[in-house]
Amino acid sequence: MNRPTCLALTTALLFGSSAIPAQGLREGSQPPDTQACVAGASGPAVRLRIQGFKNRAGGLIVRLYSDRKEDFLAKGRKLKRIELPVPPSGDVDVCVALPGPNRYAIAVLHDANGDTDLSTSTDGVGFTNNPKLGLGKPPLAKVVFTAQPGVRTMPVILNYKTGFFSVGPIANAR
To answer: Residue 13: which of 37, 29, 30 has the closest Cα?
Structure first.
């Protein structure tokens, strides 16, 4: 990505501009819902502050799920998927407009190698409510949140494989 496009994307993510380039999105993906998080927006929406990047390779994939156990992380069961490149520095704010007041779960993949699948050796993952992770998926009850009218800001700390059988945030990220 060239520097002007990266700067435009970073500015849009941080300041709510609607000038996010849509090129390069995979089928079924959407750009961030920046207008849903501007000052005075009625929501419901969530502004994710994604933190703790191990590196700046690849992209981010944000997936929104209902609060139904059978839907959580199941292929084809997401309510929304947002993809965007990883900026060269800093935390990343992503706005997700929600279908309505309800309970939801959000999973974030730092897809460092760009293959859109979790590669445990390179990629990072994070969830709403930042549960402690093991090698399997976290229980839905630990990641679900209740959306009300308005805009809610939630931190999401990325976790990477840190040992043979351990997953966690990189040093100083939590």
So the answer is: 37
E strands, the chain, are 45-51, 59-66, 80-85, 92-97, 102-111, 124-127, 145-147, 151-157, 160-161, 167-168
pTM of the model: 0.82
Name every residue whose Cβ is closer than 8 Å to that of residue 130 and which is 6 or more positions away in sequence: 155, 156, 157, 174
pLDDT tens figures, 128-141: 999 999 888 999 99
Which percentage of the chain shows pLDDT scores above 90? 63
Do the strands 59-66 and 45-51 form a parallel or antiparallel pair, or are they unpaired? unpaired
The three-state secondary structure class of 10 is helix
Is 82 exposed, middle or buried (CB count within 10 Å of its CB: 0-12, 13-18, 19+)?
buried
Measured over the CA atoms of residue 54, residue 58, residue 63 and residue 69, the dihedral's sign is: negative
